[in-house]
Amino acid sequence: MIGTETRSAAGILTLTALRGIGPATAERLAERFSILDAIVEAEPAKLRSVVSAAIAQSLHEPTAIFHAGEKAQRVLDEADRRGVRVLSIFDTDYPDALRSLSDRPPILFVKGKLPPRRSVACIGTREPSEFGEIVSDKIVEALVGSKWAIVSGLAIGVDTLSHQAALRHDGQTIAVMAGGLDGIYPKQNAKLANEILEKGGALVSEQPFGVPPSPRNLVQRDRLQSGLSIATFVMQTDIKGGSMHTVRFTLQQNRLLFAPVPQGRHAAEPKSQGILAMTQLPAMQFADAARAEGEYRRILIERYRNRPVAVPLASREDYASMLDLLETRISSVGEDTPLARPSAPSQMSML
Questions:
Q1: Which of 34-48, 83-97, 306-320 has the lowest mean pLDDT?
Q2: Which of 31, 44, 226, 286 is the most buried (most CB within 10 A)?
Q3: DSSP strands (E only) in the chain
Q4: Which PANTHER family would you find in this protein's record (predicted)?
């Protein structure tokens, strides 16, 4: 393994298996040194420009690199047995949408067909009401009808509904997992995961085999859902729901944010309060309601000022402008300037 290219999946896996080296450090080392033995042989001063003195010293231990390489090879062997591809950030088929993120994972595990650039995230509460169930199906139907792939997290609730709707309407869907691809969570969605693969979709994770979907990993997964997507659709959530993590990542990554507006009795449901906040409150008030702090709060206030952070979808009549805005955004991928929002939607009931 010493002669392994650092930018390969084997090289990145070896580096991240070393004590004290995280994803960002591994990527920096791979950019600086072409093969692993160049790291072992590098002068201390050159290494210390990339890592700390303690890590630089440990990198000069050939046995450490050797054992890390053995661990990396075991991961690659298991991936081969399971039909999983292991992609390095330096591979040409690593998703460009993720490559642009500052906190991108240097290694990605993929089973099935990689998500296309025409992807949108569809997420929401694990306990949707009738409103959440209906809008999940209608919005996904409109999206896949315009050739957008659906990204979600395979969780129960809106995630499951979104995956199922995509498959039912002959669309492609991608499940971003919070744990390793050797285990489906939740277990009751194992059949759904297989159907996603059978119909040309994919299972994606940044976590190695054997890693469980811990609370921290679930939040980390959320940034990949929005990161893979042009836009995020939040079907239903309360103001403190887990979906608000994906909302935060969506806005920090300068992705579009859409939400269907509940009307009548549906507006009074607890699971609708997050939707009402992001579609009706000015950004300053939304920041307070969402308890946004630091950089996130700054982005909300500076980018959105006195307007809501989400594009509201009040009825199916708004789908045309929704699809137009998606097409405009994908045609300008790479630009940092937020795009103009559509004209104010009608107030017709979504249901």
A1: 34-48
A2: 226
A3: 85-88, 107-112, 119-123, 149-152, 173-176, 202-205, 231-234, 256-260, 311-313
A4: PROTEIN SMF
In the chain, pLDDT over 90 holds for what percent of residues?
80
Please write the tens of the pLDDT for every residue from 176-196: 999 999 999 999 999 999 999
C-alpha closest to that of 254 among 229, 279, 277, 274: 229
pTM of whole model > 0.90? yes
Name the percent of the chain in helix, strand, coil, to the closest 5.
50, 10, 40
Only one residue has tokens 């669309």, namely 171
**Rounded to whole angstroms, how far apart are CA atoms 238 and 270?**
6
223: amino acid identity, one letter: R
Q: Can you tell me the distance from the alpha carbon of 177 to that of 165, in angstroms, rounded to the nearest whole number?
A: 19
Q: Cα 117 to the chain's mean position, in Å?
A: 13
Domains in the chain (CATH in brackets) are 1-82 (1.10.150), 112-331 (3.40.50.450)
Task: Please state the length of the chain.
Answer: 351
Backbone angles phi, psi at 2, to 5 degrees: -60, -35
Predicted confidence at residue 335, as pLDDT, reads 42
Please compute the mean of the pLDDT values over residues 51-71 and round it to a whole number: 85
Type of residue numbered 18: L
Tell me the per-residue pLDDT of 276-313, one tens digit each, with 9 for 90 and over. 999 999 999 999 999 999 999 999 999 998 999 999 99
If 0-12 CB within 10 Å is exposed, 13-18 middle and 19+ buried, where does residue 43 land? exposed
Contact 219, 245 (CB under 8 A): yes
- The three-point CA angle 129-134-140 to 5° equals 125
User: Mean per-residue pLDDT for 12-31?
Assistant: 92
> Residue 53 class from Cβ within 10 Å (0-12 exposed, 13-18 middle, 19+ buried)?
exposed
